[in-house]
Amino acid sequence: MPSRGSTIWRILGPQIFVCLGGAAAALADPAPPLSPTNIFAPASTPAKSIFGLSLFVLSVTGAIFLIVFGLLLYSIVKFRRRKNDDGREPPQVYGSNQVELAWTVIPVLIVVALFMATARVIATIQKAAQPDNAIAVVAIGHQFWWEYRYPALGVVTANELHVPVSDDSHPTPTFIKLLSADTDHSFWIPRLGGKTDLIPNHPNSMWIDPHETGLYLGQCAQYCGTQHAKMLLRVYVQSQDDFARWIQEQRQPAIIGSAVSQGQRIFETTACINCHAVAGTVANGRFGPDLTHLMSRDTIAAGAASNTPENLRQWILNPAVIKPGSLMPAMQLSDPELDALTAYLETLR
Amino acid sequence: MSTESIAWPSTGAASPTFVDHLHEWVTTVDHKRLGILYIIYALVFLVIGGVEATVMRIQLIRPHYDFVSPQVFNRMFTMHGTTMIFFVAMPVLFGFANYLIPLMIGARDMAFPRLNAFGFWMTAFGGLLLYFSLVGANGLYGAGNAPDVGWFAYAPLTARTFSVGHSTDFWTLSLLVSGFGSISTAINIVTTVFCMRCPGMTLSKMPLYAWLNLIMAGLVILAVSPLTAAQIMLLLDRYLGAHFFDTQAGGSAVIWMHFFWIFGHPEVYVLVLPAFAFASEIIPVFSRKAIFGYPVMVGATVAIGFISMSVWAHHMFTVGMGANANTFFVISTMAIAVPTGIKIFNWLGTMWGGKILFKTPMLFCIAFLFQFLTAGLTGVMLSAAPFDWQLGNSYFVVAHFHYVIVGGILFCLFGAFYYWFPKMSGKMYNEALGKLHFWLFLIGFHLTFDFMHVPGLLGMPRRIYTYEPGRGWDTWNLIVTIGVFFQAAGILVFIGNLLWSYYRGKTAGSDPWDAWTLEWSTNSPPPAYNFAVIPTVKSRRPLWDLKHPDDPDWKYE
Amino acid sequence: MTTTSLTLPRTEPEWRLPSRGRVGMFALIGAEAAIFTIFVVAYLFYVGKSLSGPTPREVLSPPIFYTVCLLSSSLTIHFASRSLRRANIRSFGAWWLLTIVLGAVFLYGTASEWHRLIYKEGLTISTNLFGTTYYSLVGLHGFHVVVGLICLSTVMVFTVFGDVKQEHAERIDVLSLYWHFVDAVWIVVFTVVYVVGR
User: Which residues of chain C have a CB within 8 Å of the CB of B114?
Assistant: First the structure.
């Protein structure tokens, strides 16, 4: 039988290592490349407020952990039955009112402190007023893609959200209204803010003000059905100029050539237009993503595949290969039809 | 010593056949037999639930792996959660309660023995109904299989439109049926504790085990009923065109969440209070001291019971309830940490100044103390709502609640198995195998659930059948999966030990641990009538009084 | 030799515990109260939120007579119980029967109201949120009345066969507790549906 001392370390060693290792790994290197979705690498005010609160909470709980852990460890080492024990029962102590009072009052005080810090951050984030120059976006969750509308700017797009960078001296936050067309979803970009759910018949709102340009990743965080796992999020934070240019491009209808291509004809006469819209043509479906500027996106199928002609063709041929359970049906088109259709879609810049 | 508790008539009739034994067990109303039935039932489903978890962990061992399809994965997490909560944890805890409470309070059986049997068979049938969905949910249109809506089945995913076939109906019905079983057992426990105590055993002289199960039963009565109501509403929606959760007709998806979590949060206290009860019996015996602060332990538990009914919406911080509601649930949730912490300190106080014996039951309870401390602290992190806006619905939450349920509850349960196995079977388990089980499971538990916190901190949501590479989640998921195999090995050793010891173990005698509560005063296993003479008690530790007549507890309590 | 009977002084207080039937019934009532609470909460939450269809004000009229019947049945069951305690089986039987009749009249009232609502006013459980919450809440209560009547009728049958005696008074009391609970729930349901919700 192992000696008491080594027994103790073998119980506790894994605990200690993992806690310290995990904490260090997560906290020590806050910026990517550890992870593009690290909650400890905030790049926007809500995420930063949460980060500040989390440091406070972690310090308090960490201190409690060390103290109580230490006491527990001490007790099982110091009060273990020794080999030369005389077999008599130790003094029976039934309780102590002073001790009970102490370890009631101190936790209550700790709870009060934690609560006040938390309440302040809740108010900062949830009661923030929407300034006039905020970009207003309406995000509508679908099974299994994201619809984005910029009502004031006249833009409708899907899956890849573009927002302007915000400077603390001239903040231009983006306020997002969250709706759902079917079941519950949740919008979560860890580096930009906490998650907020999209619930049908229960509009929610959230805001972000990213401080650095770049691409921010996330994904749906509320189980919404078969392909919940591939309802990915991509937020492109751009400079004011780039953002304005993107808006301008997105507002244009699809560039229509003088001749209607074969691909366009296939698109408009098969079931495609039941679900999809292409501004400036007869296609006006709203069930699926708007395809007017499909080629301006890096990915298709809500991030499930990169936007290449091969993937696009595969997607139309049989979506289940890329995203089984997606609500897009396999279109049962012949090879020449597929080629033509893909070529048409490739023109939708 | 005979392990038969029924005397067969000596008329020269043939000795009991297998069918006779089966009949005895199926028609029994004896609390000890029903307790064992519950426990064995739970162990079978523990293995099934464990297999479901293993399938999920293999699928997540690396990104874009295709061990199973998304449809199968989604069924796995739904079935794993539902099975583990309703057909493992609740039955095994009810089983122990059934077995131990009458013995501990000096009674011959539970208050309502037939209701007891009814409760068991309802629970058992509920579990079979859930698994019947694998074959029966296809219905007329070929859609449907095991339920895949998650164990909390958020609306409107459960509406007819989004959940075709009958899988959701099997989920609903099985919980409805087993819910009636749970409520029956809870009524039985409450009545037994109030009405069947032996002379001299006032409520303040009951073992803490009886107190904690009493409060647990009260919570079941108040909390499982809302779930029953919600299930009825869901069935009305799906079959009679009602609109409780029909968002298209003005209904609310959020109200399902409220109703579910009004059940769901007290439910976790239903699971943890009996675990605390095990610890409160085992730790004193293996520290050779009375429990520190008995009245405070009772008071803290009552406080936990009350407060637990007011914290439910901390599962809904991201739903958009508004700042004021969020703030309220922060304070109520943080408040419950206070009595819970007090209990940890009291267990510490029990060990302090004692003479700790590191037998298998105590090893599991010591690990419970460290692990429950950690789990409670990650709970405090989650209670800070803005922090929860990041951590919620991610693998951090999955790690937190498994830390409580596996690291806290299951560890105490293992401790309880080893502690009371000698009483229930009359045999001692093998101590070396017990320790092997402990180490294997400890290593596996920590590999899996310590490291599971990290992907959550790095943005990995829960309930995803696969994940993208390049998010920094890969290595952590691999380590998490490896831990599963250690845990599985531990469980195999555990079951092997139970079986081997039952047939080949040394005779245990009535009191192998030199313990102090009434169950140790009768034979192992107890006869059908429990006690030859109903005892009269004067203190919380009647056997201490008998063993120390010069220094009895009642002089000091 | 004479024997003197020796009475030992009672040094310990008598060990009294509450009756199992009562405690069990209170626990059951607690569980049922929790179920009803959820349906009441749903009713109140959805007041005024229907998107279409008849509103409570348009179609509901408070069933005063039937309510009086049901609440009186609490009184009659109390008298029945009292009679049984005094071993007056005949009187018990009469009051018990009256309780059942009053309960049945109440059910008839609910049934006829539903008939009117469905066929004349076009309100069903699927019409709108009001229909959903109304039928489920009133229906859940009605279901409990039905269960109660089945239990009461069973006792009636035993009474007719002469099997119910004074020693069963405690059990009859426990059953009456259930019946009183059903009536108390009706007070709440009535207030919520016909007063607050209109």
Answer: none
